[in-house]
Amino acid sequence: MSSLKDKIDFGRLPQHVAVIMDGNGRWAKEQGKMRIFGHQNGVAAVRAVSEACAELGVKYLTLYAFSTENWNRSKIEVDALMKLLSKTIAEEVKTLNDNNIRLNAIGDLTRLPKYNYDALMKAIEDTKNNDRMTLTLCLSYSGRWEITHAVRSLAEKVLSGELKLEQIDENCFSNFLNTKDMPDPELLIRTSGEERISNFLLWQLAYSEFYFTDKFWPDFNKEDLYEAIVNYQNR
Ligand code: IPE
Ligand code: IPE
Ligand code: MG
User: What is the pTM of this model?
Assistant: First the structure.
């Protein structure tokens, strides 16, 4: 069977792909199941897309997994998502290492339950020497939170005299963001037919190409990723 992979120009691969993984709840609802069933099935898509990106040679894959606003969901759903997160982390560390993928996480991680925070830090530590691709999970993350947080740290440095007002420019500011060691994403993918940023990488997406698909996240697979990249390369 032919694959869209053959249409990809490897000389013009995006270095950084960001994804708003959306539609788990609607996917579950379509089958008469609870929302968490959709989240559980979304893990397979995370695995598929991570593997596909690493195989292609994408250097950074950033996934919006849980937003600051998502804390407002029902306690049942939030608890289930947190459990799913630590279960997934525990199960995937070996695969990450086998595939030479480094795990990273950004967001207000201190809001995560301790068992989750600890599992995450351990997985990050255990994969820190991998250099094929960096997989960043955005957890308790929002662009406005990140920017506000950056402004605070920057103001602190000005107040302490470590930084002069004249030194503040775009480059200086971006070094206070959680993404300071990454290039900006060239491509943003959002599934489920919604066409919003939903408070994702507000600063970093300034020049990114956006790709939207109606597919719900649990149905998103490697071919869908290739399609997004081919579409991006044809612009
Ligand atoms: C995305 O799916 C996953 C998270 C935000 C955690 P949703 O849970 O938003 O699913 P829909 O959009 O309600 O279908
Ligand atoms: C965005 O999806 C956040 C994540 C994918 C984690 P949401 O489903 O939470 O966003 P809105 O509420 O539809 O904008
Ligand atoms: Mg949603």
Answer: 0.98
